[in-house]
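Thread: quick sanity check before group meeting

JM: Hey all, I'm pulling together slides for Thursday and realized we never actually wrote out the predicted structure for the chain we discussed last week. Dropping the sequence here so it's in one place. If anyone has concerns about the input, flag it before I start.
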Amino acid sequence: MTQVPMATDKPTKQKVTFSFSAPAAKSVLLAGDFTGWQQAPVSFKKDKNGLWKTTITLPPGKYEYRVLVDGQWRDDPQCPHRHPNQFGGMNCVCIVEDSA
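JM (edit): ok, ran it. Output follows.
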């Protein structure tokens, strides 16, 4: 009798959109444990109203992040979840649910 391995369902990645209001900013970056923090931050794009947005795809899980506005670390005011970081501040926590 031959056993056929059962297909394992991979968690479905979800698109997550981050936005940050900073009309006067010249640069807004998303940095977190999913970008290696400052190793590969993701750039936001600014709309005509000064709202910066970016969309990334993440598998289900909890991710810590912060926003870099013109080189200064900022909290995401829209994020209700926080976790203390090693620098005495707080990281924002993004929770991506499994869609299955």
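AS: nice. The first strand starts at residue 14 and ends at 21. Strands lie at 14-21, 28-32, 42-43, 45-46, 51-58, 61-69, 72-74, 82-84, 90-96.
JM: adding both to the slides.
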